[in-house]
Give the backbone structure.
Amino acid sequence: MSIRVEGLYYTYNPGTPFERAALEDVNLDIHDGEFIGIIGETGSGKSTLIQHFNGLLKPTRGRVLVDAVDIWQRDVRLKDIRQKVGLVFQYPEHQLFEETVFADVAFGPRNLGLDEDEISRRVRRAIEMVGLDFEAVRDRSPFELSGGEMRRAAIAGVLAMEPSVLVLDEPVSGLDPRGRDELLREMETLHREFEYTVVLVSHSMEDVARLAKRLVVMHEGRVVADGPVREVFCMTDLLRDTGLGVPQVTELMHELARRGKQVRTDMLTVEEAKAELLRLLRSEGRVR
Ligand SMILES: Nc1ncnc2c1ncn2[C@@H]1O[C@H](COP(=O)(O)OP(=O)(O)OP(=O)(O)O)[C@@H](O)[C@H]1O
Ligand SMILES: [Mg+2]
């Protein structure tokens, strides 16, 4: 399933003293099976953009196409689009409200009018997909779970709708480092094993770098870079200008290169940088 955004503009509260242009001429293609990261500092328009993917917001100007169909055409049912493009809001656990985890995850499928067997199948599958133990959590109150587990339960509620595209707005914000790593690994699994197209919104270059193949950088309502992660990581001036900052490993490798060392600078992770540094030290005969 593909999503295309063409010449998208969005203005909040037009014609009032609170008018605010949030998106300006955004063009973007998301292809089936991609894992793409959208990064940008606070207020750059990330959340506004992704709410266009499933028709929660209507463009002030421009078009959004899902599988080549303009979703604002009169004969398109937005309900279908919202089922196909699953959107996980920031702090999704704030929307948990049922008495049990099962009931919460079942809420969406139940609204689709599915029968009980199908609902049960989907709920179990979704809960297992996010790495929770179905039998252990099904009858518990979502509010007794840990922060990370609550977040997963909320994501399961979206997965139970069986979308093709999963869009997550800052899915790890507010979690402790362990909850963060676990959830990021879970996202990776959803993409690899279940072949979800994933769009991950984040402030953190480090988080997206480990998972996404492609990065879209937003700044003041515009897309200012869009390309393979390694290429975007090398755009150090742009990253500084957009307030994102350059990841520490990238900074380090660039500094070594500036000092005349023969090192690759397109490192994404500490592990990669370590391997490259060892290679350098060996080539200089400083370690064996
Ligand atoms: N409901 C709203 N009413 C008015 N202006 C809004 C509203 N929501 C967002 N904005 C404004 O639109 C712009 C883009 O906001 P948006 O929330 O899309 O940014 P973001 O990149 O998701 O930021 P963050 O990283 O803080 O979540 C900002 O200037 C913001 O103040
Ligand atoms: Mg946001």
Observations:
- The radius of gyration is 21 Å.
- Residues 46-47, 169 surround magnesium ion (ligand 2) (CB under 6 Å).
